[in-house]
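Hey team,

Filing this mostly as a record. A colleague (T.K.) asked me to run one chain through the structure pipeline before their review meeting, and I want the input and output archived in the tracker in case anyone asks later how it was produced. No errors, nothing strange. Just documentation.

Input sequence:
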Amino acid sequence: MDDTLKKLYQVVISRKEQPQEGSYTCYLFEKGLDKILKKVGEECAETIIAAKNGVQADTVGEISDLIYHLTVMMVQQGIPLEAVMEELEHRSQKIGNLKQFHVSDHNT
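Output structure:
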């Protein structure tokens, strides 16, 4: 499973380094950060709606779109996939990592 994300990341890097005409990934890089972030936001909202609607196939599709656009954003920002994977690994080792609530949070 981990290899799929690595392969995706490498394809996105190759599109940035060696643009190909007609490539959607190249189009995103051409349009720049604002377009990439707009797509991340749109896909995030669509993922939320799909999950709320409860159709698993739709939710899986939207999650896939979101991960793709997040990957494009990572490459555009120079964030190595390994950095994210290391952070996730670090977080998975934590025990009792629930956020502390303030007294006022309990009233809402």
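Quick notes for T.K.: The helical segments are 2-17, 24-31, 33-53, 56-77, 81-92. Residues 57 and 79 are 29 Å apart (CA to CA).
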